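Q: Structure for this?
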Amino acid sequence: MEIYIHLPFCKSKCAYCDFNSLPDCDEGTVFSYLSALNREIRLAGEAYGKAEIPTVYIGGGTPSLLDSGRIKSIMRVLREHFYVDENAEISIECNPESITEEKLADYKEAGINRISIGAQSLDDRNLKSIGRLHDSKTAISKIRLAGQYFDSVSCDVIVGLPYDDEGTVKEEIETLIPLVTHMSVYALTLEEGTPLALRAQEGKVLLPSDDETEDYLEIAQDILEKRGFFRYEVSNFAEEGKECRHNLGYWTDEEYLGLGAGAHSYIKTSDGKKALAAPIRFAHPKDIHAYIAGVNCAEAFDIIPRAEMRVLDEKDIFNESVMLGLRTAKGVKSDILNGCIPNELKGFFKEEGGYTSLTRSGAAVMNSLLVRILRL
Amino acid sequence: MNKDRIRNFSIIAHIDHGKSTLADRLIERTGTVSERDMESQLLDNMDIEKERGITIKLQTCRLYYKYEGEEYVLNLIDTPGHVDFTYEVSRSLAACEGALLVVDATQGVEAQTLSNVYLALENDLEILPVINKIDLASADVDAVKLEIEDIIGLDTDGCPLVSAKDGTGVDDLIGQIIKKLPSPDGDENSPLKALIFDSFYDNYRGAISMVRIVDGRVKAGDKIKMMSSGKTFEVVEVGYFSPHMIPCKEISSGEVGYIAASVKNVSDTAVGDTITNAEFPAKEPLSGYKKATPMVYTGVFPADGARYDDLKEALLKLQLNDASLSFEPEVSSALGFGFRCGFLGLLHMEIIEERLEREFDLDLITTAPSVSYIVTKTNGEKLTIDNPTTLPNVSEIASIEEPMVCAKLFTPPDYVGPIMELCQGKRGIFVDMSYIDPTRVQITYRMPLNEIIYDFFDSLKSRTRGYASLDYETDGYEKSDLVRLDMMINGEICDALSIIVHRDNAYSRGRGIAEKLKDVIPRQLFEVPIQATVGGKIIARETVKAMRKDVLAKCYGGDITRKKKLLEKQKEGKKRMRKVGSVEVPSEAFISILKIDN
């Protein structure tokens, strides 16, 4: 059972972000949240303590914003209540501006062995327009610094930003490759209601077209693949052996427990060992205060309020295995897809060793393909 | 009732010349409706009528008025004013002895007014000119009077000058109606002869006939016979409109009213038929009307295929009160099951579509309007074709004839040039042009109806800033070099987009439609060629490029539900698409081709 821990705090909200994060939280709220989180870890441990934990992912928000002593404490509590595998992959998300040598040393001491850094762009105009708090120089120096402490360093890059062109994308990918072992490359998604989406609607910011963005993605992919980074998932590239096992688990039917406000869980057992009749998905309340109150009132993990609770039926299981499996390079077992792919779409798929996966052009239009294949 | 005290009349007017307002004023002045219940445009019942300020269905209203010590009954039979509804006008005129010709003092005589005046004259009606809107600063009563005398040849000496808006002159008008319009003839002691001039369906009383009693009398309990079918019914109720249905003991010669006789089908109360008494029948029926023939046809499909039955139900309901609407089932490979509907004209079509959408909450997709062509095949067989998809193969066609119209356009002289250019471009043949007075010109063109139903009205309006008016009547058929223009989407002909056009226009229309389709069809997983073809020959081509990017990048902390929801939403959007082969075409595509300006 994988464990995800959500730390929703950010210094400020980025212009494209519609995720569950809280800018500029007061110390009291942070304290209440962390103590509720501690309590939840304990309750979860009582419920699923038998499970072995192969991966832990501390995401946000900006986990690196917190004092690193608090991260150490979270990890200590987690180990008290769960059996965290000796070789577990333990990741933490960081933003360049909040990384310090002291924090990196503390993370290492806490057993964290993988750092994921939100670089997003190496063009300062881009960084400014999307509301990031760092500049490109800081990004590069902090990624370098992380590399001195950790063997596994990843960075996130968004393409399709206002000042992107073929040249800038090429340059930033080439600059970052020697500094990291893993890279996530996403196309910018304009989420409804975000400041960036509003500015784009009003014509105050001019974004590259879908075609241009796809061109940039392909440029990035080409360079990464040439330099030994394997595209093991739609948006993720890694040197051999440096894939993010935690993320891969999401696509390959691994059981995972999400702790913290708004965190999502996918549970297949009653206690970490014994299989449930049907897998379930649920999430905690997004609102941080609702979460805190819910956890503090609960005497057992099961009683913590759940949103979007769903027991998966046969159709859900099929849909999920296809939509998630097709994100990976390996793909989906071909017999699952038997007869589901219309003839005119076959060119977007390839088959190898009993698995069906998407071609490069197929991966680019995955949603349109899924809509045709899934039983929605 | 004493026939000398009855006046049956209708009001003829161009749209906007104030017919419905004048009717309101008459109803108000005669005390028919109390001030409290007065709402404007009383006789226009439908929301569409009130909003658009037009009359679609004819209505009647009985008014009582005391004049020089005697009580008079005035039956106002309201008529539609638009060219599409000439048929309804002729029906109501047949129930009257007189007509008020209402002319706007600021606008003068319009094309449509003229044709309705001719209709009234054909029916031997006494016409009383009425000049309206005299309260407006731009009113020019003398000029309008002169125009009426010159164009129509009516005496305007002492004719009523009114303002329907503020009520000026309405009493004088009522006096003149009584003095100048004749009272009805007929014999109440002869066997019953009642002309059905309209019928409608009432949910509780069945099909109700609106009648003008020519001879005899009728009351509840009478056995009546429809003279065309011989079917008999027992009268449940008779009455009149004032303006709502008011039952009375009997209606007799000279009167206008309604007969309810538990008739289940509106087809049994055919407009133009004569009702007589089953026990004492009349020998001869009254001369009826000819049946209205549809001029414009279009395919009407539910946007949601599952609502086919609802559409059918809605059309049946509308047809109950609108005998001129015709429809039959049609199947399109692109649009599924729907109906081929026949309309009197474009406005009629628009109104029916709007009522279907509004009153029955339907989303519709309609195909390009078509007219009725006569096709002679090489083997001599003659076919009537109102649907482009049923046009035979080119090799089997010896000739095609298309319906022509004689179009009369009234315009200020400034717009003569633009109008002639427009008509010429629409394959019009110039017939005649004359100056009615120094400010108004009448231009006559012979034109294919096919060109008028396309975007003629809109073009006319925009080229003349709304100053020109148009009227047309059918003028036979003529051989023409017509071809079917097909649109191929990804190599497959989309039947719902086919149109019949003149060979000379095929190229520009084909190119226009292809460009439009390219804009409205979203990018698909494949490149989609759009081709316009005539007889297998490609005359225009556009390409919808293949979609390159459609992927959800990030998955925050294992939130799968969010991804699934997005896909479900995307799928929902696809359901509103129509499939042409493997290509998804949005409903707007079918509608947008109707709006291409040449």
